[in-house]
């Protein structure tokens, strides 16, 4: 069904990035939460357009609505205002998620959320299984993905036998298995130690470049955001809205040494300054 | 090295304990001059067991009792799984029937045996019903808990993958509730054994429970003891089978692999 959908869709001029349909168009999106104590505007009036193969990092303090924003993009939480379009197709219709639009997404959570009863290969292949791909085909694909994320040799291990970093790699491979048009990542490396995290950032950069994925990456780590992203979107709380959008022009692939250059640190410094100015 | 010692431990200590208990039993009974009609020495019980094992009656009776236990247990597993899942998925239904469940659960179900005999006769059925009812509650309640305990993050994975209700059930919920179901089954198999035997005590003309009653009526304490030991052995064997099933079906669960790797 999904294949038919993409086949009937007009193939926008890929050569000219200015006129193509954006991968993601967020228009005036808001989300209110109603509680006994009153209404909270978790996200309000967010406008953002993301090009194909663009890597956008969403940063901000806890409570600035960045995770809420990502959950709306991922089809997990309906917005109370505005529209979200994936490849020109509305993701939410009357509070219900559009099933052809959601199949274009891949979501990586803060926790790996692997299924302990499946070995790595079946965890990675789970999305394909749900789409009715045959066992042999999906295992073959899962083995390729395991190689892509550096889990070769662990295909038949159970999640409990893997370290936190390896589990998160498996979760990334799972999200990539359907070749999503848009990869949504919610602080995927937040639970990892600094060294593992740095290595995972390099791996993620390699994977994203290899698959030319479009990514929305939520983090509260400013250097991480600057290192990975083409644009850093900074949000402020109460109500959660976009405060600043900063392009990061360094060539890719980027090297860890980039983080010690004055140019890099100038961007990090200005973003930190921006965050400090709140309150 | 340490691992080997831990593995060997039960094979040495457990038999030693059994021998110590039997020796104490023997000493107490012989030195205190206890009436063997009340408390027979282990030797006599041993003889009685040997004698029992030679009787064809024991084997047919054991077959009857084991059949009742397994039939009752299987009914309890299937109905407990079904009711537990339904109540777990429909909170409004669970809320409305909860008082009834509590009342039925706290009622002494053994007291229903005379009624079961009236309804289902003296044969198999009344025992199977009692075994099933006793085993049903722990299984159903554990399944209910299991359905409610599916991890939120794993649910969100299924949602983000646009999974259908059926897929969420078959890939996530049913597998996630398996450890709970097995916890209920381990209690359930013991209760099913009790149910079948009590049923035979109270309204039976067949099975091991009935044999216990007739041994008691003929004041044959050694034989009564011997039969109780046979029943315990059957109970143990059934429990171990359920335990093996658990190892087979949920090798990924902490309760299975944790035990194997504790000292590794």
Number of helices of chain A: 9
Count of helical segments of chain B?
11
Largest sheet report of chain A: 6 strands, mixed
- Which class of secondary structure composition applies to the elements of chain B? mainly alpha
Estimated helix fraction of chain A: 25-40%
How would you name the oligomeric state of the polypeptide chains in this document? heterodimer
How are helices and strands ordered from N to C of chain B?
HHHHHHHHHHH
Sheet/helix structural class of chain A? alpha/beta
Range of strand content of chain A: 15-25%
Helix content of chain B: over 70%
Low-confidence stretches of chain B: none
For the termini of chain A, the CA-CA separation is 50 Å
How many E-type strands of chain B? Answer: 0
Shape type of chain A: globular
Shape of chain B: globular
The largest contact between protein chains, plus residue counts on each side, is: A-B, 22 and 19 residues
Structure characterization notes:
The complex is a heterodimer of chains A (279) and B (264). Chain A is an alpha/beta fold. Chain A contains nine helices and twelve strands. Chain A has helices at 2-8, 66-73, 99-102, 120-130, 135-148, 164-176, 194-211, 222-228, 262-276, and strands at residues 24-35, 38-50, 55-59, 81-86, 89-90, 92-93, 96-97, 105-108, 182-186, 214-218, 231-236, 241-247. The model of chain B has no long low-confidence stretch (mean pLDDT 91). Chain B contains eleven helices and no strands. In chain B, α3 (56-89) runs antiparallel to α8 and α9 (207-217) packs antiparallel against α10. Chain B is an all-alpha fold and 264 residues long. Chain B is globular, with a radius of gyration of 23 Å. The interface between A and B is medium-sized, with 22 and 19 residues.
């Amino acid at each position: 069904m999904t294949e038919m959908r993409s086949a009937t869709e007009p193939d926008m001029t890929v050569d000219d990035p200015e006129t193509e349909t954006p991968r993601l168009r967020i228009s005036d999106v808001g989300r209110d939460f109603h509680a006994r104590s009153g209404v909270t505007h978790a996200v309000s009036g967010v406008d953002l357009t993301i090009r194909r193969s663009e890597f956008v990092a969403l940063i901000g303090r806890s409570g600035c609505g960045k995770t809420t924003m990502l959950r709306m993009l991922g089809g997990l939480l309906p917005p109370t205002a505005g529209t979200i379009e994936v490849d020109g197709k509305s993701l939410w219709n009357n509070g219900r998620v559009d099933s052809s639009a959601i199949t274009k997404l891949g979501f990586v959570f803060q926790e790996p959320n692997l299924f302990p009863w499946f070995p790595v290969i079946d965890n990675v292949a789970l999305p394909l299984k749900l789409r009715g791909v045959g066992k042999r085909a999906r295992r073959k694909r899962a083995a390729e993905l395991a190689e892509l994320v550096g889990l070769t040799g662990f295909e038949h291990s159970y999640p409990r036998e893997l370290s936190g970093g390896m589990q998160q790699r498996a979760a990334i491979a799972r999200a990539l298995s359907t070749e999503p048009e848009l990869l949504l990542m919610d602080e995927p490396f937040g639970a990892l130690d600094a060294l593992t995290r740095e290595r995972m950032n390099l791996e993620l950069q390699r994977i994203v470049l290899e698959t030319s994925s479009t990514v929305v990456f939520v983090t509260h780590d400013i250097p991480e955001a600057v290192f990975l992203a083409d644009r850093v979107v900074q949000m402020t709380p109460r109500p959660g809205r976009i405060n600043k959008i900063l392009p990061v022009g360094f060539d890719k692939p980027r090297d860890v040494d980039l983080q010690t250059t004055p140019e890099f640190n100038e961007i990090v410094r200005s973003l930190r300054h921006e965050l400090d100015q709140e309150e | 090295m340490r691992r080997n010692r831990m593995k060997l431990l039960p094979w040495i200590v457990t038999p030693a304990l059994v021998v110590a208990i039997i020796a104490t039993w023997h000493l107490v009974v012989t030195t205190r001059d206890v009436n063997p009609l009340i408390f027979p020495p282990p030797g006599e019980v041993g003889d009685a067991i040997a004698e029992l094992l030679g009787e064809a009656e024991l084997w047919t009776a054991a077959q009857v009792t084991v059949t009742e236990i397994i039939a009752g247990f299987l009914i309890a597993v299937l109905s407990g799984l079904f009711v537990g899942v339904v109540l777990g998925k429909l909170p409004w239904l669970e809320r409305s029937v909860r008082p009834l469940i509590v009342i039925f659960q706290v009622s002494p179900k053994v007291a229903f045996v005379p009624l079961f005999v009236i309804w289902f006769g003296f044969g198999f059925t009344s025992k199977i019903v009692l075994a099933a009812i006793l085993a049903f509650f722990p299984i159903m309640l554990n399944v209910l808990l299991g359905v409610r305990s599916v991890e939120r993050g794993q649910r969100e994975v299924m949602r983000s993958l646009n999974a259908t209700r059926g897929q969420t059930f078959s890939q996530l919920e049913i597998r996630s509730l398996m450890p709970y179901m097995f916890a209920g089954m381990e209690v359930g198999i013991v209760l099913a054994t009790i149910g079948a035997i009590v049923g035979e005590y109270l309204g039976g003309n067949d099975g091991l429970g009935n044999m216990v009653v007739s041994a008691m009526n003929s004041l044959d304490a050694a034989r009564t003891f011997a039969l109780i030991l046979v029943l315990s052995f059957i109970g143990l064997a059934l429990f171990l089978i359920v335990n093996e099933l658990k190892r087979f079906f949920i090798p990924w669960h902490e309760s299975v692999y944790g035990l194997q790797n504790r000292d590794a």
